[in-house]
Amino acid sequence: MKRIEIDPITRLEGHGKITIFLNDDGNVENAYLQIPELRGFEKFVEGLPVEEIPRVVPRICGV
Amino acid sequence: MSFEPKIVGFLCNWCSYTGADLAGTARIKYAPNIRTVRVMCSGRIEPVFVIKALYEGADGVLIAGCHPGDCHYQEGNYKALRRYKLLKAILPEYGVEPERIRLEWVAASEGDRFAKIVNEFTEQVRKLGPLEIKKSLYESMKDDAVRHEEPIGKNGENLDEA
Amino acid sequence: MKLKLGIYWGAACGGCDVAILDTHEKILDIADKVDIFLWPCAMDFKYDDVKKMKDGYLDAALYSGAIRNSENEEIALLLRRKSKIMIAVGSCAHIGGIPGLANCYTRDEVLKRVYIESESTINEEGIIPEEAWSNDDESLELPRFYNTVKTLDQVVDVDYYLPGCPPVPMQIFSALSLIWNNKLPEKGSIIGAGEKALCDECPRKKDEKRISELKRIHEVIPDSEKCFLEQGIICLGPVTRSGCGARCINSGVACRGCYGPVEDVIDQGTKMISALASVIEAKEETEIERIMDSIPDPLRTFYRFSIPASILRRKKV
Fold first, then answer.
1. What CA–CA distance (Å, rounded) separates B37 from B58?
2. Is the CATH code 3.40.50.700 the one for domain C1-193?
3. Exposed (0-12), middle (13-18) or buried (19+): which is B13, by Cβ within 10 Å?
4. Which of C126, C273, C307, C308 could disulfide-pair with B86, CB 3.0 to 4.6 Å?
5. pTM of this structure
6. How many CB atoms lie within 10 A of CB C183?
7. Under DSSP, is residue C139 helix (H, G, I), strand (E, B) or coil?
């Protein structure tokens, strides 16, 4: 199978990569979108004082 | 061979260092695990000294200053006490037992008290075991490595060009 | 000759890239002096385009975001090879930033919370993403999620630092102009920021600091003219580098240290402990304990942006 990789995907906020597998006829057999990023906000905001949260979570996305 | 803790002691020149000196001249035996550092005042001790000592291999840190009211520079020992309390608050969050640091007041005449404190503290740290921060940092970062190295040719030659 | 630039984001939010765009009409001056060869936020170049370059082809690489997984580190190494100078842009690349707060937890704790425990996730099979997958014909891979967040200079040699969360856009422009005017200071310098502490830039009235109580911001109605610390509200101004124009103070909240520690200070949190202890008045032990216990989250208040750059780097496991 032929493999086409688009890495990174661009002009948006975040990381992404697209991998396309072509069969012998040259048609798309399968296409995958992967998100190779994770920072774990869900975990590390645990225990922060509540009045600090509005100053921490905007750093999820600056766009 | 049982574990011999490494203790770093920050002693203020006017009271506690003199007290430690008195223990020496009076031939009072105390645990040899402590390595002393003389500062002019316990208020000189920046919290970063304590953290750096623990990071660089100390298993425990002792801070000794003048009794409240007796500081040669009036208020330095109160500053040391406040810094000590804050350090005690952040150490557990860093995963370090707060019992590894200790603040004591030792007067210039209290050689026997100094020896008693050092012996007690050394035993306490011995029970806690080795700290070995650098070793645990290395362990926790062991798998944090890249998976694809860029091929580099001789003399840093860029192989992708070929 | 136009400067050749490569811009990349690690574990970032995009704020530093947007800060470059926030130079408004000065972006045209930038476009005049600079050719960009990688900028996933705004342009279509791929990693393969960078891999094909000669070493040292780019004049500068601007790297924002922390090193959270193996891809961040690989691209940092790649850009280090392909460019003459490497600039760490923003708090995350400089001192770890907000993603650095995850150093209080381990890799397994984070993955478990994100993919299995979080309340809005439906994942009955309990699948956690893996590094590699393959069947007979196809294979995929994901970067390795690190146990510890690292700053940029913990993985590559960094030439300059542009601090801030995000850096002030005009400071980014001045820093870029240092490059095309060939006026860069000595290697390892902090550019786009002042040398003094934030208190120097702060517009509030400063008197003698004698604090007898510490208050959380919702426990008082703060006086809008008086220094925050003097009112008992913890502000990291004394240990934070100036250069941001005191934008948080001007918005009515205390500083949290995003510009990193002042000159000659490596560990921002312990310096704040030192500073705070110097201005609290209490002398009696139980009173001191009471005041210190009133701080709700000391580690992550004193080290909001700088855990990975601190001496201990992460919670000991």
1. 13
2. yes
3. middle
4. C273
5. 0.93
6. 8
7. strand
Compute the CA torsion angle B82, B85, B87, B89 (nearest 10 deg). -140
* Distance, CA of C231 to CA of C220 (rounded, Å): 9
C110–chain A nearest CA distance, Å: 6
Q: Can you tell me the ipTM of this complex?
A: 0.93
Domains and CATH numbers, chain B: 7-144 (3.40.50)
Question: How many whole angstroms separate alpha carbon C296 and alpha carbon C281?
Answer: 20
Contact state of C74 with B85 under an 8 Å Cβ cutoff: no
Where are any strands of DSSP class E within C152-310?
160-162
Query: pLDDT tens digit string along C282-310?
Result: 999 999 999 999 999 999 999 999 999 99
Q: Domain count of chain A? A: 1
Nearest to A49 by CA among C221, C233, C61: C233
Cα distances (angstroms) measured from residue C8 to each of C38, C51, C148 = 7, 14, 20
- Which of B86, B90, B161 is facing C277, going by the closest CB pair? B86
Report the DSSP beta bridge partners of residue C139: C134
Q: How far is B112 from chain C (nearest CA, A)?
A: 24
